[in-house]
# Entry
Amino acid sequence: MTEMILALVVAVMLVAGGIFTFLAAVGLVRLPDVYTRMHAASKAGTVGSGLMLLAAGIHAFDIAILTRALAGFVFFVLTAPVAAHLVAKAAHGAGYRLARATVMDDMREAEKRNAKKR
Amino acid sequence: MDAQTIISAAAAIALLLMCAAFFLTAFRVVRGPTLPDRIVALDMLVAIAIGFIAVVAIRTGFNLYIDIAIALGLVGFLATVAFARFVMRQGMEAGEDGETPAEGRKREKTGKRRKRR
# Structure
């Protein structure tokens, strides 16, 4: 009975992780510019691979391995936003434009204001 | 239906979905069109590889693979940070962003790398 419930939980997490990863890849292909693509890849992609890692940890049925998988998941959740923010800031600073459909660019306005002040 | 069948079916579905995701992301790496696009896609490829490793760990029952996945995540993070620093240093190539190369050259001459319309 316990084995069956465990197997069901692992199976659901595996399929959910696969769906998240696939949706992130679809977003990467379909969205119009770097910034929106980054938003798909860094959130859905992280959750997808993290869910799979957790599934592997639960499947092992060992507290040491589960802890390691949990530590890996937390590490990914901590580093993905940092990496995405760095890439976005670098791209914006280097002058890569937003998509034509964008209605607002707060960072550009702020840079303009700072330039005027100086 | 026993537990082993369920897990192996779920692993097969996950592998299939991730194969599709891998090819879509590889398409974005090849297509570009800009350098940050490729960086984001490479970051995503690392995430997909981590997922693959986790599924292989479940299928083979070899739990050391989880440590490998953590190490790969660390390396992927460092690679993305290094790429971001590179973009920050080097700036945008003229004409890379779909604008006309002549306009880009003009901007280059004035030396205002950060200026945008």
